[in-house]
Design goal:
By secondary structure, the protein is an alpha/beta fold. 25% of the residues lie in helices and 26% in strands. The protein has helices at 2-15, 54-58, 66-79, 152-168, 202-223, 249-254, 282-286, 289-305, 333-348, 381-393, 492-495; strands spanning 18-20, 27-28, 45-50, 85-88, 95-97, 105-108, 120-123, 139-143, 174-179, 235-240, 263-274, 313-322, 354-358, 367-368, 378-379, 401-406, 413-420, 423-431, 438-439, 442-443, 451-459, 466-473, 484-485, 488-489, 500-501, 510-512, 517-523, 526-532. Helix 4 crosses helix 5 (202-223) and helix 9 (333-348) packs parallel to helix 10 (381-393). It binds 2-acetamido-2-deoxy-beta-D-glucopyranose (NAG) (11 copies). It comes from Oidiodendron maius (strain Zn).
Length: 533
């Protein structure tokens, strides 16, 4: 009885009046992980936090940001490991150390350069307290190469902060170190320009990187001798903005970047497009599997070329649209669906981890850690996509999980299968066809435009008998609130980001598998995971 009531309410809520599609031909799903990724390492779903905003996200010892910690724990309880946190970004290369500074950070904005980030940055000793607020979390700390390579204050900062950083990250908190953010952009014109293009090349970069990292190591050898052994000391590098910039990753490695044999992860950054670039749309750019495949493809080619190094390859900073995202695109439920497709595509292609970049007031952020006069504190739409990816991967510490893409016909949809220890367990479908619940500029509930759905038929081995559905749902691709994962809300205003089961969303839908065939309806602009039993 109660169940029927839920269903009535929620069908009306989630789907409006449905216009169902024709069932397409069955999608074959193999019993074994043929063509799938290698087993996915733990903490695949990870974050990168802009250096200057790390104190906002993490708080400090007397005032830890427990909201952020709750959101990290939610992902940890799905995947078995809390997300790894890379602390870095443009502002890592602006940061100078001031030992007398009382606050964690003093950031000065230059609106001609950026309204989103301070471009003059001083950090004080208490900056490093922020590494103490999230139990059981591993971090990378980004040192300043932009100013450190050729400026005496920058070099002093390197020498002074290396001991503080190694002490802060001792006792199992260290992922790895990083020296320089997007050095392939250092000679870029307006935004940065901290090196001259004529003399900024791979050999010069390699020389400066080796010089600086050796200085970091010798400082750490004095302050934290246990952290400079072969097993405990290393870098993610080169943290280039991409693979086609002023410096090329392949050349950089050929020129001896890893001469000291201390690079533990090859890290490259990626965005699908630019926040203010013309022609960017939700449907065309983000809710588009082909666009995601095209975006990843040159990176995968470079990754393949660098396989000879034997170093795992990650996206150490990524998100939807660079320059902190665009309102109406990067902050919507559509961008959450983008994140599900892009991250699962990366997982299926053996990218070992993705760090989704975050910052205070960023349009693409998964959450806003504090209240500001620009943005309300809260869990944002993209976070729900991160949760769905975590749920699709499952506990990576207990199972060997492999993911394979299941090719579909259209740009606006994708599907993946996940295997635990070689056994098919989950199928994800992402229906990225755009469905606006805002019509002609005003949100109209009930929506006069019926919400279409697509039928997906899967052919699985005939010994499966039942599937249970978990849905990623919202009123439309343009929704920025009211998003749920399997009926859970992680919103700040409910339980400070801890999971809360809502009672007005359908959960626990099950379907029988008949002779290996199962058909699931997926409303446009939504995703679903089928758990197979
Ligand atoms: C979503 O639609 C339902 C009606 O179907 C409405 O009650 C609810 O307020 C909407 N949510 C948002 C966030 O607009
Ligand atoms: C360092 O911080 C102290 C205390 O706030 C301040 O007086 C001093 O001017 C700062 N130095 C620089 C170089 O910003
Ligand atoms: C810790 O954070 C609180 C709240 O933001 C702030 O008031 C306090 O000054 C911070 N302490 C230090 C040492 O930075
Ligand atoms: C390393 O960099 C520092 C700071 O720029 C410089 O003083 C030093 O000469 C460099 N060492 C080498 C070997 O290049
Ligand atoms: C050193 O940095 C300054 C900016 O601080 C830049 O103008 C200059 O070109 C850099 N020098 C070299 C050799 O890269
Ligand atoms: C999806 O992206 C591809 C590649 O950028 C593009 O050719 C195609 O037109 C896009 N599809 C839609 C529906 O916009
Ligand atoms: C890697 O790239 C280099 C330079 O572009 C090229 O010469 C080499 O053949 C490539 N190696 C492989 C294995 O693709
Ligand atoms: C918004 O907050 C920032 C940072 O605290 C402050 O500099 C700015 O003046 C505020 N703007 C308005 C309009 O209040
Ligand atoms: C949704 O809204 C966007 C932005 O107004 C518009 O470009 C797009 O065509 C709309 N999509 C649908 C399916 O109405
Ligand atoms: C939206 O506006 C267009 C153009 O004015 C109109 O044709 C259409 O019927 C409107 N749609 C709805 C659902 O009101
Ligand atoms: C479902 O419940 C939540 C929490 O009480 C509420 O915010 C939301 O508007 C409800 N949604 C609908 C469609 O009634």
């Amino acid at each position: 009885m109660a169940r029927n009531l839920f269903t009535l309410v929620s069908v009306g809520f989630a789907l409006g009046i449905r216009a169902q599609s024709q069932a397409s031909s069955p999608i074959l799903v193999s019993r074994t992980p043929a063509g799938a990724s290698n087993p996915i390492p733990e903490a695949f779903v990870s974050y990168s936090i802009e250096f200057a905003f790390f104190p906002d996200f993490a708080g400090n010892i007397s005032s830890p940001n427990t909201f952020s910690d709750n959101l990290l724990n939610n992902i940890g309880s799905l995947t078995g490991t809390k997300p790894y946190i890379r602390v870095g970004g443009n502002t890592q290369d602006y940061a100078l150390y001031n030992a007398s500074l009382q606050e964690a950070i003093n950031g000065i904005y230059n609106l001609a350069r950026s309204a989103d980030q301070p471009t003059t940055v001083y950090i004080g000793p208490s900056f490093f307290e922020s590494y103490q607020t999230w139990p059981g979390t591993k971090f990378s700390h980004g040192f300043n190469l932009g100013l450190g390579g050729n400026n005496s204050a920058g070099w002093e900062t390197l020498l002074e902060t290396a001991p503080l950083a190694c002490k802060a990250l001792s006792g199992g908190k260290l992922l790895w170190w990083e020296y320089g953010n997007e050095p392939d952009d250092y000679s870029g014109s307006s935004e940065w320009g901290v090196r001259q293009a004529s003399s900024w090349n791979e050999p010069t970069y390699v020389a400066q990187w080796l010089n600086g990292t050796r200085a970091i190591k010798s400082q750490m050898a004095k302050a934290c001798p246990e952290m400079v052994s072969k097993a405990t000391y290393g870098y993610l590098s080169p943290s280039f903005a991409g693979v086609k910039g002023h410096l090329k990753p392949i050349t950089t490695f050929a020129d001896g970047l890893d001469a000291d044999d201390d690079i533990k992860l090859i890290s490259i950054h990626n965005y699908i497009g630019g926040a203010t670039k013309p022609g960017i749309t939700l449907q065309g750019t983000l809710m588009n599997h082909t666009s995601n495949v095209h975006s990843a493809s040159p990176i995968l080619a470079v990754r393949d070329n660098l396989t000879y190094t034997g170093i795992p390859f990650i996206l150490g900073e990524m998100n939807s649209l660079y320059n902190q995202g665009a309102p109406g695109l990067s902050n919507t439920f559509g961008a959450a669906l983008w994140g599900v497709d892009f991250n699962l595509w990366c997982a299926s292609q053996d990218i070992k981890r993705t760090h989704m970049h975050q910052g205070t007031d960023y349009r693409y952020a998964s959450w806003q850690p504090i209240s500001t006069n620009k943005t309300t504190k809260g869990t944002k739409a993209p976070y729900y996509g991160n949760i769905a990816v975590a749920a699709m991967l499952g506990d990576l510490t207990r199972n060997s999980v492999q993911v394979v893409n299941l090719p579909l016909e259209n740009d606006e949809e994708s599907a993946y299968a996940a295997y635990n220890d070689g056994t098919l367990r989950r199928i994800a479908v992402i229906n990225m066809r755009e469905y606006n619940y805002t019509v002609n500029g005003t949100s109209s509930i009930p929506n006069p435009v019926p919400r279409p759905s697509q039928a997906y038929t899967f052919q699985v081995p005939s010994d499966y008998s039942r599937v249970t559905l978990r849905r990623l749902a919202a009123n439309g691709s343009d929704a920025i609130t009211g998003i749920t994962w399997d009926g859970w809300s992680y919103n700040w205003e409910l339980q400070q980001g801890k999971p809360v089961r809502l009672h007005n969303i359908t959960v626990g839908e099950t379907m029988r598998v008949k002779r290996g065939s199962v058909t699931v309806e997926v409303p446009d602009s939504s995703a679903v995971i089928l758990d197979l039993a």
